[in-house]
């Protein structure tokens, strides 16, 4: 658990972005284990779904998921 | 759905502990109602609590369902609603990222139902379906 905290904390400290964004990470085995859906806050309609490890999307009305080389990219 | 919610309410008294702060670095405080207190490892969090970090603050939190949060500097994160039925390993969890960075390793609630765990940002709602991710919210918003 401590290792997971440290990994996430490191990613946060090193992270930097020009706008709100979501980044899907990977688990300790290097695999994506689930997904995060970006929903319209009013209608709950899906704007995008991130289900591939090391992808990110800006939290806009039309998010476009894209691959990143590493979590703190 | 109603039955599950009722069961969760019955098994979890109002304002019960939902998780504990595991680690802190720098300035970290918890706002509960109109009171704000410094947070230390072991501090028990309740539904509705808001965790606030300073410019160099960081905090790790472990919740009852094994969800883990890593909150970065200059952040304001509210645990708006948390209901966990331990015997059924199900529930609902709503978190609001008002500003800053939130790293999440989801736990049993996120696996218990589609979008049972949600993270709200100023512009979006995220439905968590069992995974590990980071949300970053710029600006000074606190509403």
Backbone structural class of chain B = mainly beta
Number of domain modules of chain A? 1
Element order, helices and strands of chain A?
HEEEEE
Low-confidence stretches of chain A: 9-17
Please, what is the average pLDDT of chain B?
Answer: 90
What characterizes the major β-sheet of chain A?
A: 3 strands, antiparallel
Portion of residues in beta strands of chain B equals: over 45%
Radius of gyration of chain A: 13 Å
Q: Any low-confidence stretches of chain B, pLDDT <50, length ≥5? A: none
Distance between the termini of chain B: 30 Å
What helical percentage do the residues of chain A reach? 10-25%
What's the shape of chain B? globular
Instruction: Find the structural class of chain A using helix and strand composition.
Output: alpha+beta
Order of neighbouring strands in the sheet with most strands of chain A = 1-4-5
- Tally of domains of chain B: 1
Q: Can you put this structure into words, describing what you see?
A:
The complex is a heterodimer of chains A (73) and B (143). Chain A is α+β, with helices and mostly antiparallel strands and 73 residues long. Chain A has one helix spanning 2-14, and strands at residues 21-24, 35-39, 46-50, 55-58, 66-67. In chain A, strand 2 (35-39) and strand 3 (46-50) form a beta hairpin. Chain A is globular, with a radius of gyration of 13 Å. The two termini of chain A are 24 Å apart. Chain B has 143 residues and is mostly beta strands. Chain B has one domain (2-137). Chain B has two helices and twelve strands, in the order H-E-E-E-E-E-E-E-E-E-H-E-E-E. In chain B, strands 1, 2, 3, 4, 5, 6, 7, 8, 9, 10, 11 and 12 form a twelve-stranded mixed sheet that branches. In chain B, strand 10 and strand 11 (125-129) form a beta hairpin. Classes of the chains: A alpha+beta (73), B mainly beta (143). Chains A and B meet through helix 1, strand 1 and strand 2 of A and strand 6, strand 7, strand 9, strand 11 and strand 12 of B.
